[in-house]
Amino acid sequence: MSDRVPPGFGRDAEGRLLIAGRAAEDWVADAGDTPLFLYDSALLSQRVAAFRAAMPQGLGLNYAIKANPFPPLLAHMGTLVDGFDIASGGELALALEAGVAPARISFAGPGKRDRELEAAIRAGVLLNIESAGELARAGAIADRVGQEARVALRVNPPFALKGSGMKMGGTPSPFGVDAADAAAVIRQMQGRPFRFEGLHLYAGSQNLSVEAILESQRQTIALAGALSAEAGVTLAHVNLGGGFGVPYFPGDRELDLPALGRGLAEAIGDRPAALGRTRFVLELGRWLVAGAGVYLCRVIDRKVSGGETFLVTDGGLHHQLAATGNFGTVIRRNYPVANASRAGPGAGPLTVVGCLCTPLDRLADKVDLAGEPGDLIALFHAGAYGRSASPERFLGHPPALERLV
Amino acid sequence: MSDRVPPGFGRDAEGRLLIAGRAAEDWVADAGDTPLFLYDSALLSQRVAAFRAAMPQGLGLNYAIKANPFPPLLAHMGTLVDGFDIASGGELALALEAGVAPARISFAGPGKRDRELEAAIRAGVLLNIESAGELARAGAIADRVGQEARVALRVNPPFALKGSGMKMGGTPSPFGVDAADAAAVIRQMQGRPFRFEGLHLYAGSQNLSVEAILESQRQTIALAGALSAEAGVTLAHVNLGGGFGVPYFPGDRELDLPALGRGLAEAIGDRPAALGRTRFVLELGRWLVAGAGVYLCRVIDRKVSGGETFLVTDGGLHHQLAATGNFGTVIRRNYPVANASRAGPGAGPLTVVGCLCTPLDRLADKVDLAGEPGDLIALFHAGAYGRSASPERFLGHPPALERLV
Fold this sequence. Notes:
Chain A is of the alpha/beta class. Chain A has ten helices and 22 strands. In chain A, strands 4, 16, 17, 18, 19, 20, 21 and 22 form an eight-stranded mixed beta sheet that branches.
């Protein structure tokens, strides 16, 4: 397998990788060191624009901060999307610091602590309620602080998003309330200090099948209609989840966005009458930001062992755990990788490893790259679940640098 | 499967878990919050004492900092072991801050940067050289700073430690120099600013078979003898690696330390004549510290979904990634787990999850525990590869607290 430079990046006449129109080596010189995560703001903007162009008018777009909470990136995303989904009190603080209005923030997570619930209620953030127990705690806190809590109910759907990297429906789950119990929990909100706004359903993530995503969206809309009728409530909004996948691996293809948009427009057009005035929202993290990110590390050593060639870099799983296959992956496959200092194949396949003293630290297996000490190696699709999802302190190396460009 | 409280811990009359003789809840009250890692210094001391009692006299014991770099724990280990193995410039700084003399520190790692080599040479730390390229860089730095570099050669053994959690020999590897090339690299040291001290070999880790460990130690000693003869050098020391496993999973049994000690004494007794004055060293991380650590988190919610009961805690993979099976594990199994607030089984099996909004965050599957909101849950064998090997910033929750008691 030779190198793979995804769309949005190029090479100059000398074969050096260009990121946002500038050589990777120049970005590193500016930042002062490697490893370095670069996020291209123009690619972020283009991604959201492509989404808006393809999706039905009026569809809301939320960014799930967990995918990448780098503050300059959050500030940029805040100018592009309608809302932010947070998963902790720490992410609430990051969203507020990025200048996002609390009215645009929604908070999901199965283990919200009382202090997190209180901070969210005080700020006026929407709580996606995950259980009857959490609802009772939120009610007690709302009583105590004398402030109504904005709530939606997170429902564990009785169907999965088929073929997802992570299934989050159709199975017993710590997330949300089973659909069969949802109406009863909504009724428990009555007469209590809650403003009920709608539903949150999340059936799976990292899916590359248009048909599977559309099927789960159609099922979600039907379920929302049924629950609205069963509980006798109006739904101001329904969060349909996300699930849009990223083509990390050889053979993967980008989602057909226009086909997705047409299908979702049709599903919304056919919605039950009870949802006539409901606003629908998609919640995307990885799909919005992964492709805009590149992780750059430098080759420290080239060596041959047992006939196999290794490039040892100053990067590794402490910055890019997911790319090494050590984060929820059963079979390790390569993310797109290229030599950022020179184009073309090398003298045969080689293996790119990180600097950590563990065999887990493998960035690319048997790729046909050129590579000498001093070269920069680029790992693509590095904009999501990179630095913030990696064990940064493991083995005591410095953190990676990050820049939004 | 019911709860498993390993040796070294107990319960008081009310069924509360005792750690270092005191109720877990009292330790949490002292620390001020959960989640909390507690490391029992008496158990650390006992572990080292058991090692010394079983192993041949004169055998050196190094602690591999990567297993747990918590500074108070390092300071305690410094009083017990002979040397520290480090894997980065960051770990060098930690070791020196813990008061360890540089002469007792050795530095392995396939991607040492020039600035790390320079810091180690200036401090007088032993470098385990990983390649001919690294040797050349170390030599240039030693020339420049006008100081001899203490070096050992790390050799990639042509055999594996059979049945290890991680194999680090018998295969092409980024670690060390293939045995076939070792003598040539040792010869390159001659006439250069190096003081050659010996060899470092590491064939695998997390192994629970006495026979497999002994076989690899015998092979290592034989290989060291052959290399000493081939290169025409005396070996002041040979680091035999480690590989001692910890009984994480149901059915696992503690290593038979006396049997290991007897076998190693025999292997050293039978060593080649060329190694007559060689000092042998074992390098252990996980085995020394895992059992002394407990990770305590608190139950936030108890819920039923699809007939399955979940305890949602304030802990999770952001602190204890390895326990969730998301760090180099193919099949997830439970670490020992118990309710620290009350003894006895519950009303049937339940699943303990963390607070993160991802299905990866699962701490224990289908264990028969009691568990209500407010209870403390204890995960054992948490002293190694816990906080420092976990993606602490993932989802923006606060770091776990740590205490040496």
